[in-house]
Structure formats: structure tokens, C-alpha cells
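Record minuted for completeness.

…
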Amino acid sequence: MSYAKITHSQRILVVYLKVIHELPLEKIAELSGVKYNTIRNILKTYKRHGRTNKKAYEYRFPKANQNARKNRPQMNSQGRSGPGSDEDSLSM
């Protein structure tokens, strides 16, 4: 079973019908074609975080690259790394 994709405009409609028109969730589900539980979650997210859009996807490194991520060169206070990054080379 696959889930239906809820568009941002559908999310706005759900919030609008609840906040402005104060309709019950059952009526919103009937009017918008969005499932009751999805409406509950949309409104919960709106109340908690004040957003109607989906949270941005955060890329996670694959397991094989975890060590490479840990062993990255550390940045100094100037946001530079590697040779020639010390402050003496910056002064003229």
C-alpha cells in the first residue's frame, strides 16, 4: 500500500479550514480528501512548529563514509584548514 502525496496547498487548506472556519476534523477530511489522521498530524505540526510545509530532507552519510567524515581536517577560527592557514600568513 502506498501513501498519497499531500501537497503544500492541501496542507494550507487543512489549516485554513480548521483555524479560520473552525470545522471539525471529520468535515475537513470530507472536504479536502485527506485522511483524518493525516489532518491531525498536519495540525499538530502547525501548532508545535508553526510550519505547514514538510521538513527539509537532511542528507546522512552512508555507513562506509562515517570514518572519512570523522577524519576531516579541523577548521581554525578563521574557517580555514591545512598548511598556510595560520594567522601569521594572513598578516602583511
Observations:
- The two ends are 66 Å apart (CA to CA).
- The mean pLDDT is 80.
